[in-house]
Amino acid sequence: MAMAQAAANDGVMRAADGTPLKVALARAERREKVKAVGLVLPLFAFIILSFVVPILIMLYNSVYDPDVAENLPQTVVALKQWDGKELPSEEVFAAFVADMKAAQKNKQVALVGKRLNYEISGIRSKVVATGRKVAALDAAPFKDAVIAIDKVWGEAETWATIKRSSSVYTPFYILSMLDLRQDANGSIERVPADRSIYKDILARTLGISFLVTLMTLIFGYPVAYLLATSPQKTASILMIFVLLPFWTSLLVRTTAWMILMTDGGVFAQVLNYTGITWLLNTAGLMEGEPQLFKTRFATIVAMTHIQLPFTLLPIYSVMKTISPNYMRAAKSLGGTPFYCFLRVYMPQTLPGVAAGCLLTFILCLGYYITPALVGGPTDQMISGFIERAINSENNWGKASALGVILLTATMILYYVYNKLIGIDRMKLG
Amino acid sequence: MEEASRMKKIVTLLGAALLSSSAILAVAPAHAADELTITSWGGSYSESQRKAFYEPFIAAGNKITEAEYNGEIAKVRAMVEAKAVTWDVVDVDTQTALAGCAEGTFETIDWAKLGLDRSKFIGGDVTDCAVPNILYSTVAAYDTTKTKAPANLFEALFDQTKYPGKRALQKSPFVNLEWALMADGVAAGDVYKVLGTEEGVERALKKLDTIKKDVIWWESGAQGPQLLADGQVVFATSWNGRFFSAMKIDKKPFQIIWDYQAPDWDWWAIPKGTPKLDGAYRFISFASDPQRMADQTKWISYGPANKDAAPLVDPTILVDLPSAPDNLKTVFYPDPQFWGDKGDELRERFNAWLAQ
Fold first, then answer.
1. A171 exposed, middle or buried (CB, 10 Å; 0-12, 13-18, 19+)?
2. Assigned CATH class of A198-425
3. N or C end of chain A, less CB within 10 A?
């Protein structure tokens, strides 16, 4: 009692157990904080491990390029002194022979060849052959002997390429995914036309995504309106038709489209029986039977079908929140139905339209399986080329660089959206 | 009748789609320590290996997981480079065996450990890193009920006025580039001299450009016969055994065009760094037994690579093998060394061409 009295006298407020109130409060607060952090920690760790770390690895891989630097270490050092004009000196060739011997022993020659081949077409086989023959060279001078193995070593460009790729970090992959490359002096130039495909692929990916988004909006908007304004009973039945395909696996729906779209298949027969084939033929828009399998048309139809609910549902949930009183008021003030819709109703649905379209567009950018199954080789989007870089070319640098391009395109899009509409105005319902 | 068969086809395809989606979910099964993962090319070829090798091997008290691929060496390289080898035995073609041997993707084969006589194997000395398994051939075929017999291979593949319609070709430069050059007038003996130059590759691709818009590119061996059976294409290429199975087992009215068939080997190879090296050897040794190799020809028309198996093969099957004298009148032998060296760069070039 005396203690408490004394404590009270020093002007500090205390909790029941005698600790100063400030400390007790801070302690309680900290306990709450730990609890809160503990609750989000699993999700946080999950996001870091499954999202942030892979993206960082991808960014790193798109500039990481160790094949030449690690397997030709002495050559790379010797080339530092080289001015890049004449052929390198004997010293460089000696270092090269030593490096190639070691690389041949470790079976790493093919890696060097693979890397150089990205820049000098056809050199891979020459590097591999040189690796086999270089073991026979054991006395200087090496320069002429190496050039005698293959005259590719007598070209300054070969050595310029080795010098350029001598750092373990390179802009090469990112540049080549923009159809650019560094020339012998290190300045940036365009890739020859027969090799420049990536700008087209990016444009194609954006183009297909835009068209699919537009189609889903054109088809989805009226349906969303119907759903939002119909009586409850009708609306819930209609909703099933929207949701049932939404719940079906993407792979199953794509396979179904494959069957429907085969030449002479269901879709083609419908066109024939309804006279659309005849109409298109007469109009000169098509020749003979419809050929839909493995075409851009089939890709867009299938993707539109798959993406429709993603655009429709946000629009629908925004429409549900719009009170019918606005339209009544507008009409009572003398507006025609069309004018009222355009000036009063539609502007209120825009946050939903924006949300739905953004969602569909971004999902479309990453499409892989649908174009692969119903599209032809010229309908493949960026993801398809990422898959090919990994599965058939074992070129992780290229795959990562394509990933970086896709990520950048998505981020720019998000930024533009945020500037134009504001992310806080986006409504998913 | 036709409606019913179409319906049935749709149901089968949908079933296949469901199955494959569940297969994707089950991609990483738990592997027992003694369970071998054997990777091959799927379809009727894997079926023949299952009957002739896997089932007896399992019956002898071993465990096997089957995996499928479309011959992408990149997948094997990736797991060897990452030191996470999950395939213990892989069925590879010759160019893959050579390329993988040169860069250390495959183990060097110890024939003594296999307990086999290397000289008994056709092509046994082509590479140190693989054991020859079968001899197959890349060929074209057509449906006799729908298409008239073409005079030769090049008319079938490239003559759009005589045979309008689509063609199914493998999504790979292998053999396609050679055939394109020959169709463009290059003598069979000069093909690799021409293809070794940048202009030669251009020339081959230019020839393929003439049919590019009418080609459906297939990736797995089962697709060629399937596209032909569906009437999606007038001519399809595939490996001769795939057409054989479609004709003999599924009773399809196909005819193989043996003109300029392109024979090659398939091999058993062991990815470097597999933790089940002994098991892999045991399996390869088991599957190289003459009787089992001869048995395989019951399900697919590929020639066994073990010379001792030849006398055991059912004589009625001999006419369907690529090595039958009637089938060898004109033949083009692809150069595996050329492809082992230049395969990567040509595949990249071909992929860029495809995307244009």
1. middle
2. mainly alpha
3. N
